[in-house]
Design brief:
2 copies of one chain form a homodimer. Chain A contains 9 helices and 9 strands. The first copy, chain A, has helices spanning 31-51, 77-95, 117-122, 188-212, 236-253, 259-263, 274-283, 306-325, 330-350, and strands spanning 6-8, 64-70, 104-111, 131-136, 149-155, 213-225, 287-295, 357-365, 374-376. Chain A has a 7-stranded mixed sheet with strand order 4-3-2-5-6-8-7, with helices on both faces. In chain A, strand 2, helix 2 and strand 3 (104-111) form a beta-alpha-beta unit.
Chain lengths: 378, 378
């Protein structure tokens, strides 16, 4: 057998969204993310109807149409996104004078091993017309057989890194991110370290998806990017991250948590610059960019309560905070944060910020020979 | 489109095994079930090597080999069973002078929607060489696309009914099962009602699997049957069910639970008679029985502690007890049960009983035209 490639499953630093459907759950606190899916609906439909080429994919009625949503979390946004895709495929089928009710869809909902799949499965839409499956694993690795998917959807997910870059937490490195908990955009070395990690992760992502998608298969990516030249801290989300960081410093000063712990705390996420991301898309050799749409998430302009914002932050970051500071600090940290946010919400909402640029990118898997894969598990 | 069949997803009365990996979990209390998988290993290997016909299934290197384990629960027995199947397929491949490392396996672990898939996913063997997915749903329904599976494995699962037969809990019916919590085998009408439900469920099961397996695909069924003419209460498990039933009656007499509640409590399971099951296998039109092996589960002969037996009973039946009597009665019921079992373990282990007959059946999907399916969701 030609061993063209060695495949290694690395250990990843990764934390799922808050599970269940309680008040702090992601299921109840993902309005921002839902709005992105809603905004993208029309573009997704147009993109699929225009670019899906069933014939070149070798798809006929005897096939199952397989869709994967990566980073599904616990729902419910994933169910809406998947439904939009299915309707678009059916529309395309109809446009070709075929009967869409003859297609059988299988949908794979993917997220990390420690995602709350129980909630995802229990809340699957009862009126769904597809066969559902859950697939655990990080999207930086492979988790589907070769050429087994027709459409991959990945919304609001790619900004999660496989790890925090080493130099970010290295006191001797010029990229040491002391005093901040994310890539603010103010220190060149920090930006470079985060950006390099993101690039590596995107390479792994493209390599894995290139094997899993059928030649001619489509990949839909929804991602939030920072306008070129704008520091992340000057965006709505960056400002919120800085605010949470300031709360951690307050709590360290009060002696609740150690200063060292705060200094070594960093988000394992990076929102790339617009131009940086576009270049990454264009230079990859497995996919051709068929379409790129820009839009602004209108949720970012809405005026909501401090409680709304703090619930959203907690649904996403509770896992990270728990892992780093310990279970017993989750409540005090988020309680302090929400109280301080309540007091400062006015100035935060009035701050001058730059809109992030939401991108919907449609990629098509190039038609090349299938690569054989060998596994080495570590 | 030729609408050859209307497909309806019914609501099912079904309860999963105890999740997690705590002291009462199925993961820690499934030795009986594991022993069955272990005993069957050699027969599974032989059966697959003898009967798997890759060519007639249209399988080549570009395909993914898809295996489904139905009723996986939370593991770990399912992982052993799946590994045995994969090794057998590899052995078959080698026997045909092909390189087994070129096959990509995808394994679907199925159980009810409310099964603890989180535990299943977190305990997946780190050295597995297959792509894993979880599929929620009752095995009485379809949950896979047409002709998408090559091997289906179903161990120690088919005795779970989709519902308790209506007449069993109908005070006016001659099949009212007052005074007992399962099909003891002593009342003809009760046996007939349970048996009819089992037959219906098996029909649904065969119809669903016939669509999901590729023509030529294999189905491995492991099931425990009662020797013809022996009342279920005269088997090891039946005796244990009667003992739990007697505890419920004691607690009703003590006033902890109502007598009416005890009378209306029945296990939604039925272990068919050997001859009855064999006939069901032979008369179904979608599959041909290629092999049937009988064996006895040696675990049933071992002398274990009362605690061992009560933990096993609880891991399986806690969900049913909770659903019927209410959450607050779970502890008192199982505590009383384990104390009384401790006192009576000697006489239980010395009772004269009949061995159940464990069957491993290998079926092959007949090669017939593919049926088109239409969905009606209720």
């Amino acid at each position: 057998m030609a061993k063209e490639e060695t495949y290694i499953l690395p250990l990843l630093e990764s934390y799922p969204m808050v599970g269940g459907d309680g008040p702090h759950s992601y299921a109840k606190n993902s309005t921002f993310q839902k709005k992105i899916v809603d905004c993208a609906k029309e573009m997704v439909t147009e993109g699929i109807v225009e670019k899906l080429d069933l014939q070149s994919m070798g798809f006929d009625n005897s096939c199952t149409f397989r869709i994967a949503d990566l980073g599904s979390s616990v729902g419910p946004n994933t169910f809406i996104a998947v439904q939009n895709i299915i309707e678009a495929v059916e529309q395309k089928y109809q446009a070709e004078n075929k009967d869409p009710s003859t297609i059988e869809f299988q949908v794979f909902f993917n997220d990390l091993d420690n995602n709350d799949f129980n909630t995802l499965f229990r809340t699957l839409p009862p009126t769904r017309k597809y066969f559902a499956a859950g697939v655990p694993g990080s999207f930086h690795n492979r988790f589907f057989p070769k050429s087994s998917l027709h459409i991959v959807h990945c919304s609001n997910t790619l900004h999660w890194l496989s790890k925090i870059p080493d130099e970010i937490v290295d006191g001797k490195s010029p990229a040491w991110n002391k005093g901040s908990i994310h890539c603010t955009g103010f220190v060149k070395e920090v930006v470079e370290a985060y950006s390099a990690q993101f690039k590596n992760d995107m390479d792994s992502f493209f390599n894995a998806r290139a094997k899993e998608l059928v030649p001619g298969g489509l990949m839909l990516i929804l991602i939030s990017t920072v306008p070129d030249g704008v520091p992340a801290s000057k965006t709505f989300e960056g400002m919120h991250y800085d605010f949470l960081g300031s709360c951690l410093h307050d709590l360290a000063k009060m002696g609740l948590i150690s200063e060292e712990k705060v200094d070594s705390f960093n988000f394992s996420l990076y929102f790339p610059f617009y131009g940086e991301f576009e270049a990454l898309m264009r230079r990859n050799e497995h996919f051709t960019m068929e379409r790129m749409d820009k839009f602004t998430n209108p949720t970012r302009k809405m005026v909501a309560s401090a409680e709304f914002y703090s619930s959203h932050m907690r649904a996403v970051f509770e896992g990270l905070v728990k892992e780093h500071f310990g279970d017993q600090f989750v409540e005090p940290i988020f309680n302090y944060y929400s109280t301080k946010l309540e007091e400062n919400i006015g100035s935060i909402l009035n701050a001058e910020i730059h809109d992030r640029i939401e991108l919907l990118i449609l990629l098509k898997r190039n038609i090349t020979p299938i690569i054989t894969t060998t596994w080495i598990l570590t």
